[in-house]
Structure prediction request, 533 residues.
Amino acid sequence: MSVLQAFLCGVLYYLAIGNMPFVGLWTLQRPLVCGLLTGVILGHPLIGAMTGASINLVYLGFISAGGSMPADMALSGILGTAFAITGHLDAKTALSLAVPIGLLGTIVWYARMTYGSIFTHLADRYIEKEQYNKIWRANVLYPQLVTAIITIIPCGIAAYFGASYINGLVKVLGGTVLNIFKVIGGMIPALGVAITLQYIYKDDAKVFLFLGFVLATYSKLGLLPLGVIAGLAAIIYMQVIGSKNKNEVSFEDGGDYE
Amino acid sequence: MNKEKSLISKKDLVKSWLIWENFPQTCYNYERMMGQAVAHVFVPASRKFYQNDPAKKKEMMKREIEFFNVHVEFGSVIIGMIIAMEEQKAKGKEIPGEFITSLKTSMMGPLSGVGDTIYQGVLIPILLAICIDITLKGTIWGAILYFVLMFAFSWIFSYANFMFGYRAGAEAVMDFLEKGILNKILKGAEVMGCMVMGGLVSSYVKITVPLKIVTSTQTFSIQKQFLDVLMPNILPFCFTLLILFLLKRGWHSLKVIGLIIVIGILGGLFGILGV
Prediction:
């Protein structure tokens, strides 16, 4: 990996986590997307996208609500993919390396959430002086400069040195250790699914989990056709429920969001 | 409101929306969350409201930099709505500033709740699952498709929501929330989400038992001759349900990762588990 490539990995991380335009949190932050872009930077778009996709399975339903960030999936996607490409790792091994990296990355998020209030007070002062045109500096310019520094540098360094380090590590580790990595990598997507299910596995919807599983297991359908069937199932369900409860006015309160 | 001339132009409104959609979390922080982003959104309006009354203008900006936190796309209806209310106030209507603030804060809870569940709990996982599946079949189009669809949906939805909030005003927005339309959509989304997740487990959670029982006459493979006969992928499915159970019992995801690592090390070391 060249210095330029490592730097670009850092910039990619900054764009994904800095919440600049293009709705980074919903798009660039996902390992599926930043894995592809890491692959583009390193000259292997397809391997990048596929590694990113595998890593993304863990973070399927990661919910960041109220400013919390359970794991930094962008860092995990970028570094996991970079290590996979430069170290010739398979996706499952890259995955079990990427998850701890993602946990480490949350430091950046919580640092941002902390120093951000300094700039809010700057904005307060602009308002006090009636310099409304300067508010953008406090909201965008200064905080983003700091964020760029604390994202580009560590991620770039990790990508540059990590890659050669991982290369040697894989050679040293024997078959059994790599096998353990693969076993963990095979199991860990269950966490991503379970976290998603936490929010949607309730009441009448529960049985559809079993339906989807059995259908996919025996039909070997891809997820796209299965998604279409699931959409239709949802519509049928709504219609059945709708005709059953026509006279009941009150809807469920659905208030158990966390 | 329809007959009177509005103080800000469509262009200003679009500018405000662009600021909201692009910079809501550029300075996200514990103290005010998105508060100063709202103040930033009000900058175009500040050039038009209270032209001859700097004191009142400052009062408005101070009101809008207070604590605010909401789901960006769902919450944009609130931003549109408060711009409309501030405009009415600037025109001289009797709207107490505290009323705007309390309305704003009382709406951000429900909209965050529904928004986070629908976006992060249903929409993103389903779209991701499908696009990951497409990608892992060997094409980069899955990743591109996800980006384009998510981006387009977020922007269109946020814009429509913002303009609805501005035009309809507070009453209509509250009315819409109380009718429970969102809850109905949520119910259908849960059904669809559960079904796709079931399919995802079948394809992408991999646990097998390579153990074989060797007797003098034959070898009995636990995976092939017992588990697969029972139902293929039954082990990954049960494992996923176990993790769900643990999470519902209050386990932190870190603890679950720890458990998976322990099981993986023991299982891999003794050859009980494989991929």
Chain B touches chain A through 114 residues (CB under 8 Å).
